[in-house]
Amino acid sequence: MKKRTPVSNIMTSKVITLTKNDTLGRAEQLFKENHIRHIPVVRGTQVIGMLSYTDLLRISFADAVDEDEQEVDTIVYNMFTIEQVMAKNLTSVSSTTTIKEVAEILSKKEFHALPVVDKDELVGIVTTTDLINYLLEQF
């Protein structure tokens, strides 16, 4: 296992994003269509927050809705904005941060995804799943 491998080797660089003006219904749709659990919230190319599928589950019955069903609990979603539900004050890493450093951060924090930011611009996202897949490739 290479000790100095940068996170850019395992991060997702084609990141699906939201803005604070998007709806929670739109967020749920993106989570389900793309089979993802974390979406950075951006203003332009700058990350201002992170929304997780768990954040939606906390305020709704999103997991009880059949994935093929288009109807969501819009009453609950209309009570909140993305800005109210998203995590703020994020920890981020640069694309040159080592995979080991990312693993250390994620192992000590209570979140499962980090935005990858270079020069105040979102360039990727790395998740615990990315780390596990990297580890599995080493065997």
TrEMBL record:
Pfam families hit by this protein: CBS (PF00571)
Chain ranges passing through the membrane: none
Keywords in alphabetical order: CBS domain
Domain annotation CBS: ranges: 11-67, 86-139
Entry-linked Gene3D superfamilies: CBS-domain (3.10.580.10)
Signal peptide start-end: none
Keyword Transport found: no
PANTHER family: CBS DOMAIN-CONTAINING PROTEIN, CBS DOMAIN-CONTAINING PROTEIN CBSX3, MITOCHONDRIAL
Official protein name in the record: CBS domain-containing protein
Native organism: Spongiivirga citrea
